Amino acid sequence: xxxxxxxxxxxxxxxxxxxxxxxxxxxxxxxxxxxxxxxxxxxxxxxxxxxxxxxxxxxxxxxxxxxxxxxxxxxxxxxxxxxxxxxxxxxxxxxxxxxxxxxxxxxxxxxxxxxxxxxxxxxxxxxxxxxxxxxxxxxxxxxxxxxxxxxxxxxxxxxxxxxxxxxxxxxxxxxxxxxxxxxxxxxxxxxxxxxxxxxxxxxxxxxxxxxxxxxxxxxxxxxxxxxxxxxxxxxxxxxxxx
Length: 242
Ligand SMILES: *[C@@H]1O[C@H](CO)[C@@H](O)[C@H](O)[C@H]1NC(C)=O
Ligand SMILES: *[C@@H]1O[C@H](CO)[C@@H](O)[C@H](O)[C@H]1NC(C)=O
Ligand SMILES: *[C@@H]1O[C@H](CO)[C@@H](O)[C@H](O)[C@H]1NC(C)=O
Ligand SMILES: *[C@@H]1O[C@H](CO)[C@@H](O)[C@H](O)[C@H]1NC(C)=O
Ligand SMILES: *[C@@H]1O[C@H](CO)[C@@H](O)[C@H](O)[C@H]1NC(C)=O
Ligand SMILES: *[C@@H]1O[C@H](CO)[C@@H](O)[C@H](O)[C@H]1NC(C)=O
Description:
By secondary structure, this protein is mainly β. The protein is built from 1 helix and 17 strands. A hairpin with a 5-residue loop joins strand 6 and strand 7 (97-98).
């Protein structure tokens, strides 16, 4: 009797164990395609992470969440969120919608199986962590949700804010400084206008004649076109000191 009872128990244990094994191996998965890189995730507790760039001041820039679910899952919903708030979403059989408070900033489109957030005009405010949440249903697991974090950086075209150091006393040296802003940080280069040659600072032993020679600062960070600013030295006569 005891023996029968034990083997019975063992059978139940094996049955439950195999059921658990069946459940873990049978669960579907999602593959995130866009933004790149592609990544396949089974465990719904894992948040996939990727990055993308938008450019400040650009109109109708797109942020896409393209994914595919395995065949055992039927697609249900997908949404864009940030700070825990839904910005835009699409549910099977409906129209994609933008949440009321965001209609002035975003539009959304859906083509299977890609949700695209359209940013009307990119501002610094769009630099944040967006989440794309996709849900699928399977008869064995019910509704399952996967999350992908999209870190959005907002690139800013280079702007030259000021040029300093152009004043020099005759016979002296001068270091022109070009102050440039942008994201990523721009690199700055100086050239002489007369022959386009690259010059390195400081410029030494400046004479009165040098005042008529212009210099160009070119600042570039690869976002849209570089910025330039031309300056002429302001050579002050030594005789002032006499
Ligand atoms: C989504 O990504 C896949 C894989 O890169 C691609 O084949 C498919 O065309 C994309 N879907 C859309 C709607 O762009
Ligand atoms: C975003 O821009 C930075 C700076 O230009 C660049 O290094 C990075 O590769 C870009 N990232 C993507 C995903 O395009
Ligand atoms: C949003 O996109 C849809 C589909 O492309 C378009 O019909 C609609 O006019 C757009 N809405 C706005 C406010 O741009
Ligand atoms: C530019 O730099 C000069 C010299 O340092 C300074 O006097 C001037 O106020 C600056 N201009 C701006 C707009 O910052
Ligand atoms: C200018 O620079 C040169 C070369 O570096 C140096 O010999 C000279 O003393 C400097 N002149 C002044 C006024 O600082
Ligand atoms: C200043 O002018 C003199 C004479 O024209 C020239 O030889 C010298 O190279 C010039 N210096 C700079 C820094 O342009």
